[in-house]
Design goal:
The complex is a heterodimer of chains A (138) and B (310). Chain A is α+β, with helices and mostly antiparallel strands. Chain A contains two helices and six strands, in the order H-E-E-H-E-E-E-E. In chain A, strands 2-1-3-4 form a four-stranded antiparallel beta sheet. In chain A, helix 1 crosses helix 2. The longest helix of chain A is centred in the middle third of the chain and has 14 residues. Chain A is globular. In chain A, 25% of the residues are buried. Chain B folds into two domains: 197 residues, P-loop containing nucleotide triphosphate hydrolases (Rossmann fold), CATH 3.40.50.300; 82 residues, Orthogonal Bundle (Helicase, Ruva Protein, domain 3). Chain B contains 14 helices and seven strands. In chain B, helix 7 links the parallel strand 3 and strand 4. The chains are: A alpha+beta (138), B alpha/beta (310). The interface between A and B is medium-sized, with 18 and 23 residues.
């Protein structure tokens, strides 16, 4: 099951040229970029592992792309995403965030139903991949 | 991949720009005017005094990049020239100033995407503990991408006396990026000639990756005087007629003294003359006109200890 989250989530995966253009757009707006990776893509797992520190004061997308490629090399089968943060007063939020790498095989999620009191049912999402320990999931 | 909605074609799918046929004639002068490189080169000529070898080399580089651009339009593929440089020269010979101009020039010629200058020293590249250096150096490199990374007093990166010095690690990362991403960043090393030589002899990899070694000659008295006058004019000052010879003899005397730093010493001399000028006005004149405010008189320079022989 293809996981969609963030900006452009319903588009096909962006190519490196398109990613470069997006980074350039972010930098032109003064948004610092940062890279995150994870192998636990649960929708409520908001905080992925940081790949290095956020990159401030960059002028050119080449620097971000260099880190991105290094992260992809280190974690070829993880989800990797790019965040850009708008620090402007009054906004101070993630301005743009999209997945730049996904594992070749995404097994998807299982829906677990839990019977509780009074015939209530609670639902839980469980990623099949997380049955295995961290680092061996994809 | 099938087209999706309103998505424009991917950059790779677009047809490449039309190549010129072999018998086309390209007007080099127009190419030149379009790139606006002459503006930068002229500014280099008028605002920087002397430095003939530097200007020649920069003109050569500009010509090469311009010709390469025209060649590319005919479909002639040439490897992008490596433009990493080493500026050697005494302090105050304009290495940083030329680096700023160079960044601007390479940007106009389309070699660099942004054309900004990031000026760093050892402190910005080398960390204080194990594992601190690599991220620090990489951060600086990332900041410099699309522009020029200017490493002042680069020989401090390598400390021969301490083999566990982290500088070596910074050098290795620099080398790697200089080699693999020469499209993205131009590295300029700067420093005194003799110390740069010993730096290169202990880092042969660095030396071989730098294509241009440019030596900044010391200025002679006439050039220094011209520089001084330019600096004064920029700050809205002028010399009284009788100040000219005093200023010249000041420069001559100052050159003989230790720790003479070319244009930088002249700038400092002018700063001190401005101080004396201001206090002279405060002490003597109750009312001043524009001429008094903008004119430096001989006594503003005469009071310097350079004339006292010490």
């Amino acid at each position: 099951m293809r996981i969609t989250q963030g900006t452009f989530s319903y588009l096909p995966d962006l190519t490196d040229e398109e990613i470069t253009l997006q980074i350039a757009y972010a930098l032109d707006n003064g948004w610092p970029c940062s890279i995150e990776y994870t192998d636990d893509p649960h929708p409520r797992n908001s905080y992925w592992e940081m790949w290095g520190l956020p990159m401030f004061d960059l002028k050119d997308p080449a620097g971000v792309l260099m880190e991105l490629n290094e992260c992809r090399r280190t974690f070829p089968n993880h989800y990797v995403r790019l965040n850009t943060y708008d620090a402007r007063y009054g906004r101070q939020t993630t301005a743009l965030q999209f997945i730049v790498q996904r594992p070749a095989n995404e097994p998807g999620f299982r829906l677990t139903r839990q019977e509780t009191a009074d015939r209530q049912v609670r639902y839980t999402m469980h990623a099949y991949a997380t049955d295995r320990p961290e680092g061996e999931r994809y | 991949m099938t087209a999706f909605g309103m998505r424009p074609p991917a950059p790779g799918e677009e047809s490449p720009p039309e190549l010129l046929s072999p018998d086309t004639v390209v007007d080099l002068a127009r190419e030149r005017a379009e790139s606006q490189v002459d503006e930068v080169l002229d500014a280099l000529d008028t605002e920087l005094v002397g430095l003939a070898p530097v200007k020649t080399r920069i003109r050569q580089i500009a010509a090469l990049l311009l010709v390469d651009r025209v060649r590319a339009r005919f479909g002639l593929e040439a490897a992008r020239p490596s433009l990493h440089m080493c500026f050697t020269g005494s302090p105050g010979t304009g290495k940083t100033t030329v680096a700023v101009r160079l960044a601007e020039l390479l940007h106009r010629l389309g070699y660099l995407r942004k054309g900004h200058l990031v000026s760093v020293t050892r402190d910005d590249l080398v960390g204080q503990y194990v594992g601190h250096t690599a991220p620090k150096t990489k951060e600086v490199l990332k900041r410099a991408m699309g522009g020029v990374l200017f490493i002042d007093e680069a020989y401090y990166l390598y400390r021969a006396e301490n083999e566990r010095d982290y500088g070596q690690e910074a050098i290795e990362i620099l080398l790697q990026v200089m080699e693999n991403q020469r499209d993205d960043v131009v590295v300029v090393l700067a420093g005194y000639a003799d110390r740069m030589d010993s730096f290169f002899s202990s880092n042969p990899g660095m030396s071989s990756r730098i294509a241009h070694h440019i030596d900044f000659p010391d200025y002679d008295t006439a050039e220094l005087e011209e520089i001084g006058l330019l600096m004064l004019a920029r700050e809205g000052y002028g010399l009284a007629d009788e100040t000219g010879p005093v200023f010249r003899s000041y420069i001559e005397l100052r050159r003989e003294q230790p720790r003479f730093a070319n244009a930088r010493s002249i700038r400092n001399a002018i700063e001190r003359a401005r101080l004396r000028h201001a206090s002279r006005l405060m002490a003597t004149a109750a009312k001043v006109d524009l001429a008094a405010l903008t004119t430096l008189r001989p006594e503003d320079f005469r009071a310097s200890r350079v004339f006292a022989g010490g």
